[in-house]
Amino acid sequence: MARAFTEYGRLKKVLVCRPEFLNIETPINVIAEKHQHTLDVEQACKEHDEFVAAFRAHDVDVLLAETHPRFPYEVNTRDLGVATQKGIVFGRFYSPMRWGEHRLAERTLSNHRIPVFHKMTLGNFEGGDFMYIDDSAAAVGTGIRTDSLGLQALSLALSDLDLELISVDFDEEYLHLDMICNVIGEKVAIVCLEALPDAFVQVLRDKKFELISVSREDVFLHACNLLNIGDDTVLSHRQAQKVNEQLKSLGFHVVELHLNEILKSGGGPRCMSFPVERL
């Protein structure tokens, strides 16, 4: 059974995909557009190898998804869906360029005897728009990549769980919710206040969250898009230096990775990881 019911429990198993066929010549987000002709795939693979090594150094079991030249953005495995108390839910990609990635990921999961509980066929839902807040609530971003029909389908699939899904609407330029909001620890969140609805920010304040604020400019440097692997350890990168320092001041252990090249695809450490099992 896949388990990943918080954003900060100890990560035991994660699905990632080496960027062997990463290609942003046909950009599908505003970040890739800025780097359209500058990507060094060999360097991106070296950075991803460092990413994988960081997981293994912290006793995380890394599952490597199959790669295929047809899927240039497959490195961002988070968007496949979400692991829930009922099992893995596969969403449905907004961009046709990504249709078919689920098939390769499912083959890898199946090889490790990890079943997929549900596959969405209506609307669009991508895992970068799903954020566990605590054990009773999760936020679901509705922008360009997750629509209202996708949210309804997800709600139906999880209707028998005691989990409130809070819809968070935001401008499409921010790509996914996890670019502007990230629950990085218990009662700690990294947020871009100017990009989030006031009502949702108030939800976090009412739940007594410590908020680490980032600017709109920092959003596009992936300052929000970090990953807690448990025991207050965060996989980050050097472009998020200001956030890293604030996390350290709160007692987090921050692992700063060299990810300059791979970030050009539009995803950071959170986007590049699909948590399968957390404790």
TrEMBL record:
Alphabetized PANTHER family for the sequence: ARGININE DEIMINASE
Pfam families (UniProt xref): DDAH_eukar
Biological processes, Gene Ontology terms: L-arginine deiminase pathway
Organism in which the protein naturally occurs: Novibacillus thermophilus
Superkingdom of this protein's organism: Bacteria
Molecular-function annotations in GO: arginine deiminase activity
Protein name in the entry: Nitrate reductase
